[in-house]
Amino acid sequence: MDERVVAPPGPTGLAATRRLAVLADDPDVDGVLSARTAQASAVSGAAGRTVAEPRVLAWQLDFDEASRFGSAGGDSGLGGPAPGPGRVVVNEPLARSLSVSAGDPVTLYLFGTPRTYRVERVVPEEGLAGVGLGGRLNRDVLATRLQGGQLASSLVATPVESDIRRQFDSSTAFFRLMQGFLALGLGVGITGLGVVMVRSVRERRRTIGILRALGFRARTVQRSFLWESGFIALEGIVLGSLLGVLTTWLMYRDSAALEGLEGGFPVEWAGIGGLAAATFAASLLATIGPARRAAAIRPALAVHVTE
Questions:
Q1: Helix/strand/coil percent split, the chain, to 5
Q2: How many other C-beta atoms lie within 10 A of the C-beta of residue 232?
Q3: What is the pLDDT of residues 155-203, one digit of tens each?
Q4: Domain membership of residue 87 as a residue range
């Protein structure tokens, strides 16, 4: 191995991996391999006594790519099948230190969390099986997937897919909760519109009676109240939708977490339109009752003045 590039975890490490991947097409480069590593310790009781090794390098890599790494016809040091779930490959220095062989259990303390694996096979300290971070003797354990958390001042091996899914599920649950509160507020607003229309009918009772006496039909009175409530609801829907989109766009533009995303600002017009239509229909339903009561007012009773 001629060159070794060590990068911190997170975006910096991923960026370095992507930039180095293009070297695989260079005819002067025999191979490029990316791996994740973490400092760990190991404990074994296979020899009838508990043996511990405080300094172990745990590697997560693709064994198929590792077996093809290096010059054509060369030995990468990691030939053979990839270990299955719960199994690891150890090199000879670590096997001697822990007195383990193929089939023996070994407990790895990855970031303070103990996890027990079974040794798939022991490989010589050659090629990739002897790589380290500067030590003269490297005790390596290799697996297709490492599990662990974050440790300060160390390289981190994390299951990126599961972390993203967990964060996405948490964000989704939070937004569902917020949507519940917003739906409750929307329901209160629609109910308030219905209450306002009821009070409006009571306050305009004499006016409605005079209009009826002048020849206005009951259907016309009913439609006037529906048009009034519809205009109020439409005004609130349009204003709320525009302010909501504007606020979301400002958060999208100024958020450091979303910096660097490409594709523009997405707006779910279909969802907004469906919610607006449902809100408008619910507002009209809340007003039908007061509008019918206004249309049923008798002119003689409405304009009657008690001495």
A1: 50, 15, 35
A2: 15
A3: 444 555 566 777 888 888 998 998 899 889 889 989 998 899 889 888 8
A4: 35-158
